[in-house]
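Table S7 (text form). Paired inputs.
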Amino acid sequence: HRGVVLTMAHTHCLVSWNLTMSSSTHATRALNTATQIQDACQEAPAPRPYLTMGVWSGTVACSSFGSSSLKGFGAIGHGVKQVVALQQYAAMSGRKIIASNSVYKATCDAPSHRLLPVDVLSLNHWRASQDELPWYSPKQAHSKSSDIVYDCVATINSGP
């Protein structure tokens, strides 16, 4: 689906779908890839890998980093933190693919996936510790930093 892998490690990978060329369907392509990876995990022989994913849409800073002899490419900024928070929320809540409200808004005109609202999180104040989970709280529900998050529960078939 034309994603660009920015970071790959044994515990995570970061992929962008709007990096090399602007695309209005980047959120849909990200969800397509996430569901295909989950389907492949289900078809894998036992023991099956269990992966959780966060899908977010927005702006990040991308650039080459390093020296003239050793360069890497990556993304930094608020969006990377939000993707991590969504993935960790998916893992802690037993869900496989969690999408942000920005992904829902980017795909709601031509939905290809069933996105079920599951929680209200304060992703801007997320700290990746077990002591401070991003669960719903009345104080967070009405703040500007709160966001509805969605469980990607199914792919919608668009043909016969």
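Next pair, protein 2 of 2.
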Amino acid sequence: RSLLRLHEAHASLQLALPAMPDVLLAVTLFGSGGSPQLCGPAMVKTTPAHQLRRIIGCFCRWAGVQPESVVFHSVDGRALTPEATVAELSLSSGHAITAVLAPSAPLPSSSAQAAAFTLLDVEDSELAALTSGLMG
């Protein structure tokens, strides 16, 4: 009985919260110094309220690279602040993000390099990482 009340309370809370529209960002990883594309594009599903650091974490887990070894830029060349939200950065669906791997960093995983295109979900990636013990 208490489980049913908990479920009902959760359902009513979900109805009371405004739905956030999904945003799909295209992230592509390049090597430094104008190197060719290393992996991607990956379409990353997120929301306007997510901080860029969550998108970075999702992409880097998929690519098999360390987040601190990659710098993220808007397609217009401006550096993107990891603490800012998607909305604060004025990113919308289809927006391209360029990720540049540091010169001394290991290359992305072979599976990421072989993928011509992939779709990632920030929240699914975080749940998978939590269940496998990858998130700190």
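The radius of gyration is 17 Å.
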